[in-house]
Amino acid sequence: MSSSAHESPLRWAEIIAVGTELLVPPRVDTNSLYITERLNDLGIEVRAKTVVADRREDLDAVLRAAMKRTALVVLCGGLGPTDDDLTRDAVAQVLSRPLVEDAAVVDQIRQRFALRRARMPENNRRQALVPAGAAVLANTHGTAPGLWIEHDGGLVVLLPGPPNELMPMFDAVVRDRLSPRCGDMRVYRRVMRICGQAESDVDEAVSPVYARWPSEALPVFTTVLTAPAQVELHLSVRAASDTLAATRLEACASQLRVVLGADLFSQDGRTLEEVVGQLLLERKWRIAVAESCTGGLISSRLTDVPGSSGYVALNAVCYSNDAKSEWLGVPAALLAEHGAVSESVAVAMARGIRQLAAVDLGLGVTGIAGPTGGSDRKPVGTVMIAVATATSEAVRTYRFPGDRARIKQFASQMALDMARRLMQDTPIGGAFVVTTRQVSR
Amino acid sequence: MSSSAHESPLRWAEIIAVGTELLVPPRVDTNSLYITERLNDLGIEVRAKTVVADRREDLDAVLRAAMKRTALVVLCGGLGPTDDDLTRDAVAQVLSRPLVEDAAVVDQIRQRFALRRARMPENNRRQALVPAGAAVLANTHGTAPGLWIEHDGGLVVLLPGPPNELMPMFDAVVRDRLSPRCGDMRVYRRVMRICGQAESDVDEAVSPVYARWPSEALPVFTTVLTAPAQVELHLSVRAASDTLAATRLEACASQLRVVLGADLFSQDGRTLEEVVGQLLLERKWRIAVAESCTGGLISSRLTDVPGSSGYVALNAVCYSNDAKSEWLGVPAALLAEHGAVSESVAVAMARGIRQLAAVDLGLGVTGIAGPTGGSDRKPVGTVMIAVATATSEAVRTYRFPGDRARIKQFASQMALDMARRLMQDTPIGGAFVVTTRQVSR
After folding, report:
1. What percent of chain B stands above pLDDT 90?
2. Are strands B72-76 and B154-159 parallel, antiparallel or unpaired?
3. Where are the beta strands (DSSP E) in B332-430?
4. A69 contacts on B by Cβ (under 8 Å)
5. CA dihedral in degrees (B38, B40, B42, B45; nearest 10)?
6. Is B185's pLDDT higher than 60?
7. pLDDT in tens, A348-404
């Protein structure tokens, strides 16, 4: 049917990703994450998403069920040239429309092959089959065109599975076609990030606050995501204007600021390394890191930020005792007396790299990432982090849970957070801490 | 119904993840990835997986549809104490069973709160509601028990949403309960990893090979996954014994070895950093890395491997020209003449870090990760990688696609691969290469 003006705007969608290969254990369906975000931007919320194997009866049933629930169904994948690419056939069958070869599409596919000096295999003709009445969406990155089908007051959109074809097609064609159907409402988000409190403490503090928001005028919904030593609050609101949304989200953010204090390090989705970078730039400071158990992860995170060459000059990964003493000037006697995993050594590393790189702020990290090397007194997960400036030094001993990868993540996060708090002059958060020592000099 | 011996073994499953929060754009449903892998281990294949919002009518419909298709449906999440935790109610309704409070479960929940010196909120009683006839699965990490319901020849399993509750529950209870229902067949996998060929070249080389396997006796299915400068082939086979599966997978692997040659760096799922670590250990060699544009990522990847302290002593991240010349001894004249992003500087960095750390193998990496800093001659993505030993040096200029994060990933991968190939004495792969220079001395 036509997209006449009296229709109610599109509000809900379902996404169906087609392909047996998407059900292999490590495989994440990144397409649906991308499409969900883009649909949200248009004010359309995703009600369900399904990954289904290349099996006609299942695909037919899943499509029928989705069309019953929502006016917009987006299918991804299964548009290739082989026999197990079933999406075109399933859609044609479920919508009771014959498949018709589209001569223009055949031409385009043939030209794509000609560019590579190849003949179009006969198989690829299948990609030019189009359910009667469908609009063809050009694929500038591959052979399978997308399809846009108005049906019975609803809308079925077929997109190719490869993300490098699907994403540009959505942005170039699908968004503009959907936009006039979406009304004035948009979904706006704001991401707040917290470090220095255990997840359960954050939740205890903030859940009484955000629990009220959904029942207030202009309801705001909150989702809690967690990463090592980080809690994220994703706030979302449906609103008819940028201003309305921004005002409402800011009101919610201000309530969170009250209960979270200095543990709230980002209110605009910035990562911890971005926040640290910004603080360094504001102070015209440079930073240097001496890492042992984190093995370069802190350095890598700092340099993930564009422009980090403005404040990172030199970092060192000193795994061995020799490297710690020769490079960083950690006294051999200190290493012998306290062991490489000790607060004294962490402080000497921070001090050493700060002087060596001639920067304002030095970080030193030493610990036991495991799986071996732990002891009763210093079990796997024990990490000492020190921060040094011209006027002060501080060191903390942490005990982090999890495997080697998680312990590295935890330690890199807490080290960056110590740098942040030093620059913001706020006390260090309490999570995972065993001991603290502050040295002013 | 009972699990009598004449039933056919469980072959197919569907997974339903329940929760509006799972539909927030960045959120990945990791539970279903975990369960898929565990079910595969038992010989059960996942036919579809769905993420559905907290909305009763949708959840009911999705559950009904899944039960029609497969004998095993696993639901994750929606077992919490609040009103939007709907899974118990939906299952009771769809299976037409009344919800009954389980006194033992109430006791357990009460005890959990008592341990934290808290009273059980009245809300949490909801978590003790059990569809009549369901078996309760103990939750050792939280308050919501799992549920196991035999129904009409099929099986519905409810698991709590938090991964730290779901995973141990599956491993401790669900697996053992499923195992006798699964027959003798298991799904076996083998992961092969390739570096040094573009994805399309790998596919052109291997697809004629793996295309035959599904129609042969003991069919093997292949899934291709890609990461920056890495192609993974996931082979899977359903077989009744470890030996049968291993023999069949090895026959397939040997065919891949023929067409892939030295580009195939891993045949057992090991990562490139694990392979490089193993090669170093075999040679009793140590490695040192001087990184500029990769910012510590190579070092972090090398030290992700347990035991890497056996071959990593000292790595340096030298972002600034000063750091390159002062630390690594890169001649200032070289930096002035060729610029920091040049093959000469990459070689001098590899040579410098090798000597400084007194190791066998040095890597030097310099380039433009962007988004700024590119030029016509050296656009963003240009990276020089050098490798140096006591007897030889080699350097390559690459041009990598993508944003800053991807360029770092690409460069770290190709640097590790250059180290691997040097140790395996095989020529360097051709993907992304602009120029090559080999210097024997």
Report:
1. 80
2. parallel
3. 361-367, 382-388, 392-399
4. 58, 61
5. 130
6. yes
7. 999 999 999 999 999 999 999 999 999 999 999 999 999 999 999 999 999 998 899
CB contact under 8 A, A316 and B313: no
pLDDT value at B4 more than 70: no
Q: What is the DSSP letter of A171?
A: I
- A2: pLDDT confidence band, cut at 50, 70 and 90? very low
Cβ–Cβ of A51/B49 closer than 8 Å? yes
Residues 293-322 of B with CB under 8 A from A: 294-300, 302-304, 306-309, 312-320, 322
What are the beta bridge partners of residue B365? B291, B385
| Whole-number Å distance between alpha carbons of A383 and A376 | 14
CB A275: neighbour CB atoms within 10 A?
A: 23
Give CA–CA dist A21/A17, Å, rounded. Answer: 10
Q: Is the four-CA dihedral B357, B361, B362, B367 of positive or negative sign?
A: negative
A204 close contact with B: CB closer than 8 A: no
Structural domains of chain B sorted by starting position, each given as residue range(s) with its CATH number in brackets: 12-181 (3.40.980.10), 186-266 (3.30.70.2860), 272-440 (3.90.950.20)
* Model confidence pLDDT, tens digit, residues B86-141: 999 999 999 999 999 999 999 998 998 888 788 888 888 889 999 999 999 999 88
Q: What's the pLDDT band for B439 if we cut at 50, 70, 90?
A: low
Chain A, chain B: beta-carbon pairs less than 8 Å apart: 210
- Look-up of token digits 């390559």: B396
- The tokens describing A15, both together, are 């996404």
Cβ contact B36–A25 (<8 Å) = yes
Site of tokens 């790299």: A353
Tokens 């990703």: give the residue.
A17
Residue with tokens 């500087």: B345
Between positions 250 and 279 of B, the ones with CB within 8 A of A are none
Residues of A in contact with B34 (CB under 8 A): 25
The residue that leads in pLDDT, A290 or A27, is A290
Mean pLDDT across A213-224: 94
The reported pLDDT for the residue numbered B436 is 63
Q: What is the DSSP letter of B358?
A: T
Number of H helices, E strands in chain A: 14, 18
pLDDT score recorded for residue A276: 98
Residue A4 has pLDDT above 50, yes or no: no
Window 397-416 of B: residues touching A by CB (8 A cutoff) are: 404-405, 408
Half-sphere exposure of A432 (CA within 13 A, CB side): 28
Residue type, B100: V
Query: Across the beta sheet with A230-239, what order do the strands follow?
Result: A220-227, A230-239, A186-194, A264-266
* Beta strand ranges found along A199-327 (DSSP E): 220-227, 230-239, 264-266, 287-291, 314-318
Q: Which of residues 28-57 of A touch B (CB under 8 A)?
A: 28, 33, 36-37, 40, 45-53, 55
Instruction: Tell me if A394 sits within 8 A of A386, measured CB to CB.
Output: yes
User: Sign of dihedral through CA atoms B405, B410, B415, B417?
Assistant: positive
- State yes or no: pLDDT of B438 exceeds 80: no
Chain length of chain B: 441
